[in-house]
């Protein structure tokens, strides 16, 4: 069983059944990580190009390991998102790479819609590894996998997503995925960082962090980019941390079995206190481990399963 | 040049005319209009039976890109596009390279237009040197050289004191100032209208308030100085409301709207199509409806295309990096006939008024009327012509339009400038007939 699509660009175009297929496949991939020899031949002879036009350690490494464990040849290309600087457009770069006949291009880019632009241009598969403020679909899938592992199911669960919703591709992908899987979502953060019309995505907006945390199954804290302060979205990191940071004290109002997630990298002491990040509720490192499994599943379903059928 | 166009439906809103008749042009000017005119023998005659004869259409907002960006458009290619699209005159914005902020540049544009232009070209001079928004350009010299108005279009003039001085100073030359009304601090970094769609797409938004604030300021300064201010490409319901109120109070302010702001909303950005990226951005359905209503009731005086040719390399990039704007000269008339007149948003006479008398009045241009003695500029449209917009066939050098593939009913059929036919049945002067 594969995905009958060329690309994985966003969560919102996936059906709930496709998300289930990806999560089930990812769950079965996890066993490979525990083997002595972490390699299966599923994508032998396939080439995956990681085009990371924005700095990333975790996601790039995760895609690279995923491809290598499946025996694909993985090539990393890094560059700048500013086409003006390069003198070569994104489409040009991609066409040049395509001329070398890869099976898949994984793209991380600072501009929303960059993955869509590539997918329109290229015949090979395109996987979105994060485009601007739009989507980060593999992050949402690994988050869903982590939640499903802990809770055994997704439907009916409630989630609070806290922080800079406006600029977050993680929030957009998770909101889309969670709503499709029957979960309820509340967002909270400074009103300057809650984007207009967000309710139309099917979420509730909480005025105060404490209101968002009460009775939810999952708390997802987002990374705060430090440049938000210079643009006057918030007056200071100190005040942000005081009002919207997740401390042990704020956590007292939450349920005893709440799960705490963070897409990383964590600004310790700003959006989340160290005791909470490293505490018993935190599943942050499990998220990272599941990232590899989810990316193996995506590459396998887009590149491998179809080839096997043919 | 003499020309006799007979047997059509003459629609000339400036003279309250909508009746069957003929138009006679002699020595490049309108000589007579009426039913069954007697004409001298030997004069070239065109039968317009079943078609609409109107004063030549005037587009007061185009970018011809010359001098400096000839890879996007030239005065020759841009005026060919105008002729093909039924326009007999265009006013071109100052954001060329170098900027049209000195007599030499204006002279160059007019010389090039005389040598290679197919339609009338009216240059618009810069308000500030280099469009930098810091010091006034020599507005007097620009007027002497032939500029019909002043504008820093593309860049809002954020300094209100500077704009005030420009308005006062411009009075001496009887030229209006055209305002690109957008608060630059509010619009900074934005690539589309701010609202649910921008949230959904993860694109930075430009709130409607960015336009509303500047239109309110511009009206206040027009009121203070008495110099006419023309608001370019109005896109929001709030701006329309302010204009309506200001006009009712007698403030010297006018407004234009583009076909794309009348036909498209921010939903057009859904596929990250850079051909839907404009400044001001495509707005909400409510804004579109307000602009349509304002065009109908005369709050908006003119339809202007904001013809903004760009090369593929300017557009086939990430939306954040893509250039703003679309070409409009070759699609405007067909789109307006199809979606405004056939869909009963405007009656034909009102559409013609907003393409002729309206824009002529805004910039104080000759034309826009078939009164005897007026320039012999005529546009004939075929209301029944069915066609599909094919960007590959544009006379413009550029292809950047979101309207490619759209089926239209109605098109310009004949374009006449000073009695000379520059387009007939889709064939532009100098091209071999099909």
Description:
- The complex is a heterodimer of chains A (310) and B (434).
- Chain A is an alpha/beta fold.
- Chain A has 13 helices and nine strands.
- In chain A, the strands form two sheets. A five-stranded parallel β-sheet of chain A has the order 7-6-5-8-9. A four-stranded parallel β-sheet of chain A has the order 2-1-3-4, with helices on both faces.
- In chain A, β3, α5 and β4 (125-131) form a beta-alpha-beta unit.
- The termini of chain A are close together.
- Chain B has 14 helices and 19 strands.
- Chain B has helices at residues 75-84, 103-116, 139-145, 160-170, 184-187, 196-201, 209-225, 237-248, 259-263, 285-297, 312-315, 332-341, 348-355, 357-363, and strands spanning 3-12, 17-26, 29-34, 45-47, 52-55, 57-62, 87-92, 120-125, 149-151, 177-179, 192-193, 205-206, 229-231, 253-257, 302-303, 378-388, 407-417, 420-424, 427-428.
- In chain B, the strands form three sheets. In chain B, strands 1, 2, 3, 4, 5, 16, 17, 18 and 19 form a nine-stranded mixed β-sheet that branches. Chain B has an eight-stranded parallel β-sheet with strand order 6-7-8-9-10-13-14-15. A two-stranded parallel sheet of chain B has the order 11-12.
- In chain B, α8 packs parallel to α10 (285-297).
- The radius of gyration of chain B is 20 Å and the shape is globular.
- Chain B starts with a strand and ends in a 6-residue tail after the last strand.
- The model of chain B has no long low-confidence stretch (mean pLDDT 97).
- The interface between A and B is medium-sized, with 29 and 20 residues.
